[in-house]
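1st attempt posting a full record on here, be nice pls
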Amino acid sequence: MFLLRLIIPDRPGSLGTVSTALGEVNADIHAIEIVEHRRENGTAVDDIVVDLPPGVLPDRPVSACNSVPDVEVIWFSRYGAGGGLHMDLEAVEQMTSAPADAIDILVEQSPAVLHADWAALLDGTGSEVKVALETSATPEFGDVAAQWLPMAKAATLEAPDHKGLAESVLVAAPLESDRRVLVIGRRGGPEFLGSEVARLSYLASLAVTIRATA
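the predicted structure (as tokens):
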């Protein structure tokens, strides 16, 4: 399974042309998500999850998309979270079904929701910043986590020159207080878009609201 992030013209038929090009190289499309509309220049950013049959080289879908006029591939990587995009609603459903665990559920689901590699809940309400909860593949933070607190609102973070973090792109949002922060990382990219920061901010606020009803 692979994830393609594309910039395409934001007009009818563009996505169909890309889908046809992918079909010609035997790439099976599992899901498509419009990540962002860029009305200022008439383009959109789309994520497409494809499955490739044995014998098809991973660069074939990239070449196919780049062959479509005015289409640009800005990211291509293996996608380990499965074939489903539209993970926001699934995360919300899980949170509402177990309100007391809403924040833990958001931490666990956020890598799949944002197509990331890991997530960690940092707790700086005490004398030192601790990792309260983390998903698999979360790197060690050491002392660098303290520089991100307090955090008033969701934002991207500058990756510190620290083993395991230097090659990552990061986004974070406060949960319950400005010293309890959810940090999410992608190794190598792509950069988190403004629309993704907004989605994380919304989900974080929703998780806190749901938790308060428990």
